[in-house]
Amino acid sequence: MSTLSARSLSVRLGRNQALSGIDLTLTPGRFTVIVGPNGAGKSTLLRALAGLVEPTAGSVLLDGRPVGRMRSAERARAIAYLSQGGQVAWPLTVASVVALGRLPHGEAPDALPPSGSEAVGTAIAAVGLGGYEDRPATELSGGERARVLLARALATKAPVLLVDEPIAALDPRHELVVLEVLKAHAQAGALVVAIMHNLTLAARFADEIVLLDRGHLQAHARPSEVLTEARLAQSFGIAAHIAHEAGGFVVVADRPLPQA
Ligand SMILES: Nc1ncnc2c1ncn2[C@@H]1O[C@H](COP(=O)(O)OP(=O)(O)OP(=O)(O)O)[C@@H](O)[C@H]1O
Q1: pTM as predicted
Q2: CA 95 distance to own-chain centroid
Q3: According to the model, what pLDDT value does residue 143 have?
Q4: Where in the numbering of this chain does the ABC transporter domain appear (predicted)?
């Protein structure tokens, strides 16, 4: 079991109060999507959950233990974190980049044990990059590179996976491929959290949605409870309507509302 929780979590970045008094409990087997307008504090929350940002008040606990006090290798085995718009600095092959996900297990990328090779192969196949293993990762498109980095995070086989805007650079087909991977990962027992701006895809794939606005937690519930026309107006400043379809709903953004 890996339960991740924020308790009265506040984070100040320079002069900005990025997060204020967040109370949140996330559980295994659930795919949670964090939404909110630009600057709401989504990336800061994800980084704090990963133990990469020191809370100014409150705490982040993994199974009751403060993540900030875990040793980095232990934390990396427990929590795989993928930042927004990640880059690959060295001309390593796709297989070598994904194999870096095994480092927290003490496995060298060029000498993986069978279990490590299997984790790498499965992750590459899951993101639809079979056949790309020997390509230099620096010679890929932005969307291909984003999927390589997601595969690296998956290859870690951490029980917690935190990903910041995993579909931002992807074409429509690969948006669905990646969201299906994340959903399946959660259904297999992982605790999966992703930041997304596409509210319709968030509604379709998420088990639960966290809505942040100006550093505050506005809602944490099922998509249909969070993505209401009133909340879209209040938090995103848009007039929108919800179109109901068989098996789900579509968020149609009609126009920006005048700023208060
Ligand atoms: N290094 C920093 N120093 C000072 N303030 C920062 C820093 N990084 C972010 N902020 C501020 O903290 C707040 C939250 O930023 P954060 O990146 O978490 O927002 P976000 O919801 O992820 O936004 P976006 O949707 O634009 O990616 C914003 O007001 C931002 O300007």
Answers
A1: 0.95
A2: 22
A3: 87
A4: 4-239
Per-residue pLDDT tens over the stretch 101-154: 999 999 998 899 999 999 999 999 999 999 999 999 999 988 899 899 999 999
Contact (Cβ atoms closer than 8 angstroms) between residue 241 and residue 230 = no
Question: pLDDT tier at 260 (50, 70, 90 boundaries)?
Answer: low
Q: Is 20 in the pocket of ligand 1 (CB under 6 A)?
A: no
Ordered DSSP codes for 208-255: EEEEEETTEEEEEE-HHHHS-HHHHHHHH-EEEEEEEETTEEEEEEEE
Q: How far is the CA of 42 from the centre of ligand 1 (A)?
A: 8
Question: What's the CATH class of domain 4-256?
Answer: alpha beta
Q: Where do the structural domains in the chain lie, given as residue ranges?
A: 4-256
233 Cα to the center of ligand 1, angstroms: 21
Q: What is the pLDDT of residue 109?
A: 87
The preferred substitution site among 12, 44, 46, 216 for testing ligand 1, maximizing ligand atoms within 8 Å of CB, is: 44
Alpha carbon distance 90, 218 (integer Å): 41
The token pair that represents 70 in the structure block: 């875990």
| pLDDT value at 85 more than 90 | no
Q: Nearest CA to 31 among 169, 177, 197, 222?
A: 222
